[in-house]
Amino acid sequence: MNNAEYIEIAEALYEVIEDTLDNWSEPNGVALDYENASGVLTIDCEDTNTQVIISRQQATHQIWVAAKSGGFHLVHDDKVWRCTKTDETLGELLSRTCTEQSSADVSFHHVDNVMDD
Question: What is the DSSP letter of 89?
């Protein structure tokens, strides 16, 4: 993948994550807010005063996730973003970490299909 393809995939991914948070958090009464600045998407789990941080790593064409449970590097395998440490997809990893850090069962599984849309 070249830099332009990486940026396109990463931007589409961030948009889906933001849409998920916008459409899911408030109706379900979950205090999840986010901020997107300079390629870093910070999800605030307000009820536990913790964050899940997603960052683009353009030089390596990776997505990095930082959560209470650790740091995770994800590579794109032409279908999904996959964690090099746990083998989880990004959707599985975000679902797990946000659920662990919030008061609700949060699902991001559909982000794995972002390039299918």
Answer: B
Say how far apart CA 11 and CA 81 lie, in whole Å: 13
Identify the weakest region by mean pLDDT among 31-35, 66-70, 97-101: 31-35
Residues 6+ apart with CB under 8 A from 20: 108, 110, 111
Q: Is the CATH number 3.30.920.10 carried by domain 3-116? A: yes
Q: Any idea where the domains of the chain sit in the sequence?
A: 3-116
Give percent of the chain with pLDDT exceeding 70.
92
Residues 6 or more apart whose CB falls under 8 angstroms from that of 100 comprise 67, 68, 69
Model confidence band, residue 111 (pLDDT cutoffs 50, 70, 90): confident
